[in-house]
Amino acid sequence: MSLTCLLRKRVHSPQLRFFKFYSPSSSALMLEDETPNFNASVPKTNTRMFHLVVRVFKTLNWSVAREIRFKGWVQSHGFSHSINSFRIIIHTFAFAGMHLEVFALIRDVLGFYKEENRDAFELVSTLLDSRYHVERSVVVFDVLMKVFASNSMLEHAYYVFVNAREVGIQPHIMSCNFLLKCLVEANRVNGVRCLFEDLKNFGPTPNIHTYTIMMNFYCRDVGCNVDIRRAAEILGRIYTSGETLTVVTYSTYIKGLCKVGSVEVAWKLICDLHCNNQPLNNHCFNAVIYGFCKRGAVYDALEVLQEMKNSGQLPDVYSYTILIDAFCKDGDDQKVRDLVEEMELRGIKPSIVSYTSLIRDGIRKNMPMKSLMNIIREISVSGYKYDQTIYETLIDGFCKQGDMYSAVKLLEEMSNNNFAPSAFCYCSLIKGFYKLRRFADALKVFIIMQKNGMWPDTIACNHILSIYCREREFDEALALSEEFQEHGVNLNPYSYNEFIHKLCRESFPEKALQLLPRMLKRNVLPEVINYSTLISGFAKQSNAKKAVMLFTRMTKVGITFNIKTYTILINLCTHYCKMRIAYDLFEEMKERGLYPDQIAYTTLIAAFCNNREMHMARALFDKMSQEGCPPNAITYTCLINAYWRLNRRNQAHKLYDEMRAKGLSK
């Protein structure tokens, strides 16, 4: 039930309903307000209960009170006597200013209500001392609000706040701030806004802590986007209210500015605050450093670090870690080394995040994992224990380098240290096994993922679909793709190309063509790889009409051809002896900035050789080396065989010797 609906239902209920649990004999403090009825029958109760209540009332002895458990009293004396006795004890301690004791007692009562599934809203009227002296219940209502809020019973806490105002009680701002903070942490957007408006309109008057909580609410990006405009309004309210801004408030606002991309505005604010001798801390500077690094302006971030030091604010481990990670991604090894050395000179021990960034950088640069062991050993020497991120980063590195033995051993160590592998870890293993063509092992990992309720990312899914297409029935692989999408995996053109390739390989290009509408229905636009595979499939079936149709469709929808597409079309043209068109396509490919590879060159050279146009074949052969694409054994073999057939043995022998000299085997 929403807070709005709940309050509409309860606040406007009759006044009699609110006080229905009130009892004139409920509190010793109320005797002055009520005329006792000496003719009324005295309820029978246990003497021990009476003596305990009197003893607590007289001595304020908490060691006596803490022996009393509400549930036990209810079982011994009944609910009515127990709640009345507890009310007396609660108000006694509240009157003496013993708030922690009041909190413990109310929490005990609430525990019973929750266990017995009673309506906890009743506690508001039950714990009210006197309708004529409501000020004596202020502490109890404050604590009750906190007890509800700390137990995530936010509607109940808000209900206390609203009803306190209805009976004339002004809650303490600290209790209201506690409720406001709990609402923010629970992402109860409407509740936060309603409570803040109530505080502004009806009191208690918000203080700097209230405004800071609201600043945090508007500057965070959990559940809703950062609302920097409202955050600025809060800042304005603080200035006009006369409250003194704290460094926490400033740093929260600066973080908010950086989150919405206003890093320069945040940096200007820091400079202005520094000039006006306003409080600043590391969080302010670190937010701007992170903001610049996030957009790739790493040297601007480095300048902020320098200004941070000039202002007398010493950088911390997070300042350096942010920059180390950014320069690792930027590939500036020298700056990374300089920052690490500066940390050491300042006596700042790198964090586990710093080490993770260095390891990731090494993996990204394809450094051998053995050379990264120095960093790994340094982690142990520094006294850090591997966390899950370190383990999974190392496992990913071993998988990328094909060392699946080390990856699996590390996975076992990780599990023994009570870290459950994440989906990322499993995906790394699938990709590693697939790269080594250990398809059975990749499938085993996939099955474990499914048992643990996880699903692979798109690339790992493509590998699994590829294995299914290789080793299983087409329909089974297609059904798996549907299951992937049902679980939120976004398939891409490469995913569907596994099916297209399988069908074309099995000589069913027509059936493969039917997958294009299916892709569009799933909001996956066919790309050049899909068309190229289909064109190749139809070309191998000698169906030039369909191949040209697909080529035309690609042109109409604006898909740019790649080298593979051109090579397929060149091969198709040469098959039908359209040598001039084939050569024009070859030149067009280069004009579009695509550099022909060995397959494209060899395809056209072989066609000219078969057509006995040796001058063209030789010219292309010579151009290959000039353009940085050295001929391979197949290219040499095409020319050697052609020269041999034309009885030009000298040229054939010469090319054969050249091929052998280059270490190419026929």
UniProtKB/TrEMBL annotation:
GO cellular component, one term: mitochondrion
Gene3D superfamilies the UniProt entry points to: Tetratricopeptide repeat domain
Family: Belongs to the PPR family. P subfamily.
Tree of life domain: Eukaryota
Organism the protein comes from: Cicer arietinum
Molecular function, one GO term: mRNA binding
PROSITE patterns assigned to the protein according to its UniProt record, in alphabetical order: PPR
Range of residues in the leader sequence: none
Entry keyword set: Repeat
Membrane spanning stretches: none
Sequence ranges of the PPR repeats: 281-315, 316-350, 387-421, 422-456, 457-491, 492-526, 527-561, 562-596, 597-631, 632-666
Gene coding for it: LOC101492947
GO biological process, one term: RNA processing
Name by which UniProt lists this protein: Pentatricopeptide repeat-containing protein At5g65560-like isoform X1
